[in-house]
């Protein structure tokens, strides 16, 4: 039996690859053999864990760092990663157990920063680590599938990319999106919270003058 030869956990991975044709979508063609598949999946794992080819080669037996590096470059340049990722996410959402995890019509979105070279156009200085970094803004369904992601600038309002990702993803019919946009407004109260992220020691809230209500006391401009 296959599960006895490679293990029960590995069987589910092989089955998922067979159902989604992940490697074929990622390469844009069928793999030429097992060696190419090993290098391809080692490259995907390296890119997802922020490891270089040499570090991954020490973790994967029988795959050289040169082959992994070539596979990483191919994945970066061929533009097929979005299609392959969407296929994997769609297969996950189609699984019956996914219905127990959430409604399928809600998602959350947030940004995380990734270390990068300063030569990238989108790279900015990350204030906590004090090094060049790029933001990646990710939409995750309440059924735990990553349905969209895109690179963004650091230290910017995120309302635009939150809306863009919700509209561009094609995996589910979103009705609600929970976000952290680094700012919000209570129109009825006339209160806007819009912290400026550059050159400020602390965020402050500001009252909307045109929406002021005489029945309410003015809010302080301090936190």
As a percent range, the share of strand residues is 15-25%
Shape type = globular
Domain unit count: 3
Determine the fraction of residues in helical runs and give it as a percent range: 25-40%
Round the mean pLDDT to the nearest integer and report it: 79
Q: What gyration radius follows from the Cα positions, in whole Å? A: 22 Å
Task: Supply the number of helical segments.
Answer: 8
Protein structure class: alpha+beta
| Unreliable segments of 5+ consecutive residues | none
Q: Could you give the count of β-strands?
A: 8
- In whole angstroms, the N-to-C terminal distance is 64 Å
Order of helices and strands: HHHHHHHEEEEHEEEE
Biggest sheet, open or closed, and with what strands and sense? 5 strands, mixed
Key attributes of the depicted protein:
alpha+beta, three-stranded antiparallel beta sheet, 8 helices, 8 strands, 38% helix, transposase activity, Tn3 transposase DDE domain-containing protein, Tn3_Tnp_DDE_dom, plasmid
């Amino acid at each position: 039996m296959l599960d006895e030869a490679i293990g029960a956990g590995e069987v589910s991975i092989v089955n998922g690859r067979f159902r989604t044709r992940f490697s074929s979508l990622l390469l844009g063609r069928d793999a030429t053999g097992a060696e190419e598949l090993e290098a391809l999946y080692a490259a995907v794992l390296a890119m997802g864990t922020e490891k270089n080819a040499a570090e991954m080669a020490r973790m994967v037996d029988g795959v050289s760092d040169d082959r992994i590096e070539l596979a990483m470059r191919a994945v970066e340049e061929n533009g097929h990663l979005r299609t392959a990722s969407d296929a994997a996410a769609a297969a996950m959402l189609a699984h019956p157990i996914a219905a127990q995890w959430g409604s399928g019509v809600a998602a959350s979105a947030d940004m995380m920063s990734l270390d990068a070279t300063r030569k990238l156009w989108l790279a900015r200085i990350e204030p906590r680590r004090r090094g060049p970094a790029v933001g990646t803004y990710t939409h995750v369904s309440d059924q735990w599938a990553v349905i969209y992601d895109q690179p963004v600038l650091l230290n910017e309002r995120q309302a635009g990319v939150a809306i863009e990702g919700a509209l561009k993803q094609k995996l589910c019919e979103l009705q609600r999106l929970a976000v952290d946009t680094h700012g919000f407004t209570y129109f009825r109260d006339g209160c806007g919270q819009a912290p400026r992220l550059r050159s400020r020691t602390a965020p402050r809230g500001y009252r909307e003058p045109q929406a002021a209500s005489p029945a309410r006391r003015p809010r302080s401009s301090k936190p």
